[in-house]
Amino acid sequence: MTVEAAFVVPTVIFVFAALIYFSNYLYTRCVLAQDCYILAFRAASCTDSAYGDDPGGYVMNRCSKVAGNKYYGSNRPCFRAIVRGKEIEVSANTVVRHSVVSNVFGPLRSGWKLDVTQKAKKREYAEHIRTIKRIKDIGLKE
Fold first, then answer.
1. 9-23: string of b/e by CB count within 10 Å (b at 16+)?
2. For residue 51, what are the contacts with CB-CB under 8 A and spacing of at least 6?
3. Average pLDDT over residues 63-90
4. What percent of the chain has pLDDT over 70?
5. Of residues 96, 88, 87, 82, the one with CA closest to residue 32
6. Residue 54: how many CA atoms within 13 Å on its side-chain side?
7. 7, 74, 95, 97: which sits with the fewest CB atoms below 10 Å from its CB?
8. CB contact burial 93-126 (16+ within 10 A = b; e otherwise)
9. CA-based nearest residue to 74, from 116, 105, 46, 41
10. In this structure, how many other beta carbons lie within 10 angstroms of the beta carbon of residue 87?
11. Is the distance from CB of 65 to CB of 79 less than 8 angstroms?
């Protein structure tokens, strides 16, 4: 084996390993954002009488079902819901932990922290669409 290959082969292997770890980080980030928005949207459009006017209770009850087993290589996410009038804000955080990367890069020993917040507005969508259609119809008549 030549000296050049002794430097090139470990570098290529390290680059591939880093790509796999960063891809896992991005996957976890995307899934966490998706789960937050799904919970916010479903809580905003929830008509279940068991929750009444409590979208926060809906989020807390359904978060473990929505999260499922998608978060491999990271901690189980912690979800929170904040209701401000008609707006529902769902936040979640988790930590992606990889011992191999944290041994190579010293500052990443605590893992990669992810914080995601998604919002949805509570509204009657059929009524909202009718209002917009009526405004367009009035605008076209003139």
1. eeeeeeeeeeeebee
2. 57, 58, 61
3. 87
4. 84
5. 96
6. 9
7. 7
8. ebebebeebeeeeeeeeebbebebebbbebeeee
9. 116
10. 14
11. no
112-130: pLDDT as tens digits: 888 999 998 887 767 777 8
What's the length of the chain? 142
The pair of structure tokens assigned to 70 is 């998608």
| Helix (H) or strand (E) segment spanning residue 88 | strand 87-96
DSSP states of 41-56? HHHHT---TTTTT-HH
What are 124's two structure tokens?
Answer: 């009657």
Beta bridge partners of 94: 114
Q: What order do you get walking across the sheet with 87-96 strand by strand?
A: 78-84, 87-96, 112-121
Name the token pair of 112. 């990669």
Residue 49: give the domain boundaries. 3-141
- Helix 55-67, helix 3-44: angle, nearest 10: 140
Residues contacting residue 122 through CB under 8 Å, at least 6 positions apart: 44, 45, 55, 86, 87, 88
The DSSP secondary-structure symbol of 85 reads T
* Number of domains composing the chain: 1
